[in-house]
Write a structure and sequence with these properties.
GO molecular function, one term: oxidoreductase activity
Distance between the termini: 20 Å
Number of helices: 11
Mean pLDDT: 92
Radius of gyration: 20 Å
Shape: globular
Keywords: Oxidoreductase
Protein name: Alcohol dehydrogenase catalytic domain-containing protein
Domain Alcohol dehydrogenase-like N-terminal: 27-113
Length: 373
């Protein structure tokens, strides 16, 4: 039996194949479907550098080998999600520093299996929806980080998948009327405004826009921008935001860079503490317009987080199961595995993320039609 996989190296993607040996170390999983997210696109575009050459961290799989080690038991044929973030091991980050889901089969090492990253699930939806579970879980986590502040206003900076999902969920909570979404491009704004969040106020990013949106106290700001601009967006936001407000940085942070001419490392470390949050024990920084200043602390709170807990993954699945129509329009492209490397190369060469006439938001890769789930 061979494993086909998409390898990203030298700025291009290509499909390769390797035999699967009978002595599998860990848990062998057949990938049914996976998702291409904004972080993957940043890697493909050279905005982020990661260790693995096989990307992909969202999706659905079926266990292929009997597994019984140290009290962890899985049987062949079980349908599962993989939590791409191991809260106990920073060296496990699926599709970033270990091979991800853009392959037909994936092996999860024993250490990660026994740290609980495998989530058995009775999956009844179309395989297409599986690519939305992890980003919905991230969006739910983001909303939880600001809940205790009882915000009256919401601002999302970054019109990618997580930004739009936060908007969808706020709509379910009947809070979309107090929401503004700031995009990085007109293309992004046009799609979100016309299809996904038509009742929300939409803007294209500049400093004046952010200044105007942050005039009120009790505002929650979610930053979901590409990693290469996140630090500057945080700087602009802190300068504009009013007291009794909170900023949640979901994006990657450049720890070697600065925020308002001060080291970003403290916020980076705070975000690193908030991995796969499982309770209300969230780390925050108290900040002001200078970012951090011991002599002048205002009631502005700054935080960030990585990944989502297994509990949030299951909550996301339940939310999606009850609201399939609401989330279906997030999926803009569906590609089979055979054509996926060509699709990725189109993304790499595209200047505006438009493929087949549509802006790429969420792409789903199908390895199977799902009939034999």
């Amino acid at each position: 039996m061979n494993n086909d996989y998409i390898k990203f190296i030298g700025g291009i993607c290509k499909t390769e194949s390797i035999p699967i040996t009978s002595n599998v170390e860990g848990l062998l999983i057949r990938v049914i479907a996976s998702g291409l997210c904004g972080t993957d696109i940043q890697i493909l575009k050279g905005i982020r550098n990661e260790k693995t050459e096989i990307l992909g961290h969202e999706g659905l799989g079926i266990i292929e080998n009997y597994y019984n080690k140290n009290g962890y038991f899985f049987k062949r044929g079980q349908t599962i999600f993989i939590n791409p973030t191991d809260r106990h091991d920073t060296h496990f980050l699926l599709g970033h520093n270990i091979p991800g889901l853009f392959q037909k089969y994936i092996t999860i090492p024993d250490s990660a299996v026994q740290n609980g990253v495998i989530i058995p699930i009775k999956y009844t939806l179309s395989p297409l929806f599986s690519a939305l579970i992890e980003p919905i879980a991230v969006a739910l986590t983001a909303l939880e980080t600001v809940e205790s502040f009882s915000p009256m206003h919401y601002v999302i900076i970054g019109g990618g998948i997580v930004g739009n999902l936060i908007g969808k969920i706020l709509g379910l909570k009947r809070k979309a009327s107090s929401l503004s979404l700031v995009h990085g491009s007109n293309r992004s704004m046009e799609m979100s405004q016309s299809i996904m969040l038509p009742s929300v106020k939409h803007f294209v990013n500049d400093k004046d826009v952010i200044n105007n949106l942050l005039k009120n106290e009790k505002t929650a700001v979610f930053i979901t921008t590409p990693k290469n601009v996140t630090n500057s967006v945080i700087s602009t936001t802190i300068c504009s935001i009013q007291n009794n407000s909170v900023i949640d940085v979901i994006s990657g942070i450049d720890s070697s860079g600065s925020i308002n001419a001060k080291s970003a490392s403290l916020l980076y470390n705070t975000r690193a503490k908030n991995i796969c949050l499982e309770n209300d024990d969230i780390s925050y920084l108290q900040a002001n317009k200078y970012y951090l200043d011991d002599t002048e602390k205002n009631s502005i709170f700054l935080t960030g987080h990585r990944g989502a807990s297994n509990k949030k993954m299951i909550e996301a699945f339940s939310l999606l199961n009850k609201n399939q129509k609401l989330f279906h329009d997030m999926i803009t492209h569906v590609v089979d595995f055979v054509n996926f490397s060509d699709f990725l190369n189109e993304i790499i060469s595209s200047k505006n993320r438009v493929i087949n006439g549509k802006y790429v938001l969420k792409t789903v890769i199908l390895n199977s039609d799902g009939i034999n789930l």
